[in-house]
Each structure stands twice: as C-alpha cells, then as structure tokens.
Design a protein that fits this description.
Layout: E1 2-7, H1 18-27, E2 30-35, H2 44-54, E3 57-68, E4 71-78, H3 85-111, H4 118-125, H5 132-141, H6 148-156, E5 169-170, H7 171-180, E6 184-187, H8 190-193, H9 199-204, E7 209-214, H10 219-232, E8 235-239, E9 257-258, H11 259-277
Parallel strand pairs: 1-2, 2-3, 3-5, 6-7, 7-8
Antiparallel strand pairs: 1-9, 3-4, 4-6
Helix pairs in contact: 1-2, 4-5, 5-6
C-alpha cells in the first residue's frame, strides 16, 4: 500500500475539492492520504468523510508557513486535532494576514495600471487562506496575463512589482503549535529550502521528520535527506504536493510513499500521546526506601 502525505484543495491554493482529491487518489491506487492545505484545516472534515467512503486511510494535516533565522520554511503538521482551540486561533490569525497580503498585492497591481479588484480575487479563491496563485488565476481570467507562469514572472515573484513578503510565525512556534494540538511536525520539501544548516536546531526544538520524497526532489536529494533522517532519528515522509490543475497536470500519484513510513508516523504519534498523558513518577523521598 502507498500514501501521498502532501496534498492541497481549494480550501487553500489547490483547484480540487477534497472529494476530487480522494477520487484521484483512489484512481492512483493510494491507500492513505493526508490533506495539508496552507494555514488551514478547514477542508479536513470533508476529506475525512470522502476517504472513509473510498476506504482510504485519512491523516489530518496542514502546511504552516514559518521561518527560522530569516529563511522561509514550511512545516507540515500531521494528526493534529482540527478542533484544537489554540490551533484554530493561530490559523485564523494567519488567515487574516494572508487576506491582507492579497489586498496589498492588488493595490500594487493597481499602481501598475492593472485594474484588478481584491473582491474578485477573494471570490475566485472562496477560502479563508488565499495566496498568490489566486491572484495569478484572477489575472489570467481578467485577460491581463496569458498564463499562471506569466502572472508570477511579470508581477508576483519576489522583487516583481506586486510581490509582498509574507508574515510568518517562527519555525519553533510552528513546531510547538503542532505538538500542543497533538500532532507531529515535519519539514516540507527541504531541498527547496536550502537550509540544511538549520535542521539540527529544528531537531533540538522537536522536529519529528523530514519530507524526503517530493516531486521537486531529485533522487540525490531524496537520498541526502534520508541520510539526514537516519542521522537525527527522524521520521521519513513524502508526497506529491499536488495543487490540482493550477500547475498543469495534477501531480497526485507521481509520488507514492511506502506505507511502512505511514506506520512509523502513526507509531510515533502514539508514543507522543503516551508521553504527554502518562503521569510523572512521584519523587522518592530520602529515607523512604525499604527496610
């Protein structure tokens, strides 16, 4: 059995519904799926229902935007309680940040004489965690750009006229937030971060795993991060990072993670829960021993 533990829906910047993701996962022969939308768990209940109907194992997840020492990192959280109050408060805060970022991008586009309205982008996104891909789609639909790639190249990439930096939580805060919500924290697509020198510090802060298998990881990168995982006793995960049709052909099914890694992820979650819920032994008082 195989799994894909990195998937997006229209609850963030994907184009598929949770039901469409599950249907395509079933067609690809996948037995376990995780939904990891950006800064939201809003789509998880529907994904769970769809997976149950398709007899596919479901893992609740999210991809948190974070940074450490000025470098942007994405931290995947698995098995988090989607109703955890603190998690929902923090996600809501960053969803507002995302929405304000869209407004600023549109304002900068207007300064470039591109007559786009923020309401148009929000209507197209129809979610609480909009991002640059939604602005790109709006530009294409309005005829200002011919393609998603052109929109990014002309306006939305870093140092382009409409680029606006993200406000991010610290990676250490992201790891702590995931843990307190009952989850496991995994660094997403580490080869794209170019931050190998940060892995040891994140492990010290409680990082649980590395996403070694990814569509943008060459075989050499996968081997490299599996070696990191072995060195630091980290879990190994992987996924396609499928965003539906926003980037051309859907990627789901192109990365198939062996189920043994899912089993290890589940065992690690059980161990974490046991370590949190088990009572601490009472300190032994001096002179209280037998005799």
């Amino acid at each position: 059995m195989f799994a894909d533990l990195h998937l997006h829906t229209h609850f963030s910047d994907g184009t598929f519904s949770p039901e469409e993701v599950v249907a395509r996962g079933r067609q690809a022969g996948l037995g376990a799926l995780a939904l990891t939308d950006h800064d939201t768990v809003e789509g998880c209940p529907r994904m769970a229902v769809a997976c149950a109907a398709a007899q596919i194992e479901f893992i609740t997840g999210a991809e948190l935007t974070a940074e450490h020492e000025g470098i942007e990192l994405h931290i995947l959280g698995y098995f988090m309680d989607p109703e955890d109050p603190k998690l929902l408060r923090e996600l809501a805060r960053f969803q507002i940040v995302r929405q304000n970022r869209i407004r600023e991008m549109v304002a900068r586009l207007n300064e470039q004489n591109v007559p786009l309205d923020a309401a148009t982008v929000f209507a197209l996104a129809n979610c609480r965690a909009p991002g640059r891909p939604h602005v790109a789609r709006a530009l294409v639909q309005a005829g200002h750009c011919k393609s998603h790639d052109e929109a990014f190249e002309r306006f939305l990439k870093k140092d382009r006229p409409a680029w606006v930096p993200k406000a991010k939580m610290s990676a250490l805060e992201a790891i702590e937030l995931i843990h307190q919500a009952g989850g496991l924290a995994v660094m997403a697509h580490p080869a794209l971060n170019r931050a190998d020198h940060l892995i040891a510090a994140l492990v010290a802060a409680g990082l649980d795993g590395l996403e070694c298998f990814h569509t943008k990881h060459k075989a050499s990168a996968t081997q490299r991060y599996r070696a990191f995982a072995e060195r630091f006793h980290l879990l190994v995960t992987g996924g396609s990072d499928c965003h539906g049709l926003s980037k051309g052909k859907p990627l789901i099914g192109t990365v198939k993670l062996a189920y043994e890694h899912v089993a290890k992820l589940k065992a690690a979650r059980v161990s974490r829960i046991a370590s949190v819920t088990s009572p601490s032994p009472l300190p032994r008082r001096e002179g209280s021993g037998p005799g």
